[in-house]
């Protein structure tokens, strides 16, 4: 297994931080059932975000127990590296293809969640939680076409890589793109209780309205129908045990979106925007919508942030740059990170193998991974 460490934040902000060398050196002293941990072929890519280090140890399901002490030792070894403020090492069991890894989320169950700083129950706890699902997060955008679905699936994959059990619900009733993004339009089967079973793909539990309707027939639904269809997909689907369910919301801030934000038991929302002023105005509306229904905004992602020429490497800020970061600062919400406009992201998405799957060690996967890490930080109690 190839190991790589790229600290995007450091690259972007020139912050001198912990180095790959330091982490690998500390891990080389950790013994495992297969010799030194660095030679055991079980380490995932290592992600560093500022002074936080995250990686996974991937073992067979039957070996998890034997490796738990190794995980703990690895965490302790990395924590002792000067400059490291936090470490998360996930132990993931690669079971049958498509199965989710063993959980180690640290995410409080839905029922125990409260709005930050508030003594009163959050709106989420006023709605019935989804049994077995710890946290539901919405990926939303004020307008269509900004890359919300692409961001949603790559973030879901990034969270899974951090050792979480993750589901993806494509609630974009007006243009479900998840079937294309995962390269399948198979129909979900029913279980013994006549509940739909999500498809298992890339280790995610996936459900989309696109699995149920003809992709070529336009869907013209009024807001109550949209809400009812999505509520069914949330509650009449056998999601099993999930740490996080990522909901790819329909774009916009109309009635349907508002009602959804009110009716889905959301832990929080991630807003995707491109850097143009017009997109940012819509992103601001999205933010206002979630604030109105008291759903915390977990952060803003700037997609298509800049274009880097694949031939000469020249960077062009086609839509301007940094608008979403400035906007996040102005509005007092976290800025989760930026994703460049790149042909590979479009091509891999269109080919049904998101960039986190097709090029997991590449710079784009690293960018999504860094955002997933920031997001996980927001989700922890
Ligand atoms: N960073 C990126 N670089 C290049 N292409 C991208 C990027 N992000 C998304 N795309 C492409 O842009 C198009 C729209 O993306 P996507 O479907 O994710 O947007 P969306 O906001 O979900 O759209 P809608 O809400 O209208 O369905 C797709 O072809 C996708 O591959």
Automatic annotation (TrEMBL):
Keyword Cytoplasm: no
Region (Disordered): 101-126
GO biological process, one term: mitochondrial respiratory chain complex I assembly
Entries under PROSITE patterns matching the protein: MRP
InterPro entries: FSCA_dom_sf, MIP18-like, Mrp-like_CS, Mrp/NBP35_ATP-bd, NUBPL-like, P-loop_NTPase, YlxH/NBP35
Domain MIP18 family-like: 21-88
Residues annotated to bind ATP: 142-149
HAMAP family: Mrp_NBP35
Protein name, per record: Iron-sulfur cluster carrier protein
Native source species: Rhodopseudomonas faecalis
């Amino acid at each position: 297994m190839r190991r790589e460490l790229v600290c995007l934040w450091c690259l972007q902000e020139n912050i001198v931080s912990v180095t790959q060398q330091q982490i690998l050196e500390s891990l080389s002293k950790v013994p495992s059932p297969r010799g030194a941990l660095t030679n055991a072929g079980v380490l995932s890519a290592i992600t560093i975000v500022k002074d936080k280090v995250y990686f996974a140890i991937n073992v067979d399901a039957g070996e998890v127990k034997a490796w738990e002490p190794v995980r703990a030792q690895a965490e302790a070894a990395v924590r002792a590296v000067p400059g490291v403020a936090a470490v998360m090492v996930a132990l993931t069991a690669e079971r049958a293809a498509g199965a989710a890894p063993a959980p180690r989320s640290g995410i409080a169950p839905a029922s125990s969640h409260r709005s930050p700083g508030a003594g009163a129950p959050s709106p989420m706890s006023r709605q019935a939680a989804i049994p077995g699902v710890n946290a539901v997060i919405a990926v939303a955008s004020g307008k269509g076409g900004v890359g919300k679905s692409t961001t949603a699936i790559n973030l879901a994959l990034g969270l899974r890589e951090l050792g979480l059990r993750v589901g993806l619900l494509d609630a974009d009733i007006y243009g479900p793109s998840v079937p294309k993004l995962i390269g399948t339009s198979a129909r979900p089967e029913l279980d013994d209780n006549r509940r739909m079973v999500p498809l298992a793909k890339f280790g995610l539990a996936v459900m989309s309205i696109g699995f149920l309707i003809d992709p070529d027939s336009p869907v013209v639904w009024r807001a109550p129908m949209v809400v009812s269809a999505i509520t069914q997909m949330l509650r009449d689907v056998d999601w099993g045990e999930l740490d996080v369910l990522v909901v790819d919301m329909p774009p916009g801030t109309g009635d349907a979106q508002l009602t959804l934000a009110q009716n889905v038991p959301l832990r929080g929302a991630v807003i995707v925007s491109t850097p143009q002023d017009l997109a940012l105005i819509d992103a601001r509306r999205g933010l206002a919508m979630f604030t109105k229904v008291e759903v915390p905004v977990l952060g803003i992602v700037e997609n298509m942030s800049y274009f880097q020429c694949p031939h000469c490497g020249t960077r062009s800020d086609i839509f301007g740059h940094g608008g979403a970061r400035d906007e996040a600062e102005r509005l007092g919400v976290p800025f989760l990170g930026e994703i460049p406009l790149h042909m590979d992201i479009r091509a891999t998405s269109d080919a049904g193998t998101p960039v986190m799957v097709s090029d997991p060690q590449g710079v784009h996967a690293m960018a999504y991974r860094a955002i997933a890490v920031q997001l996980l930080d927001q989700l922890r109690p």
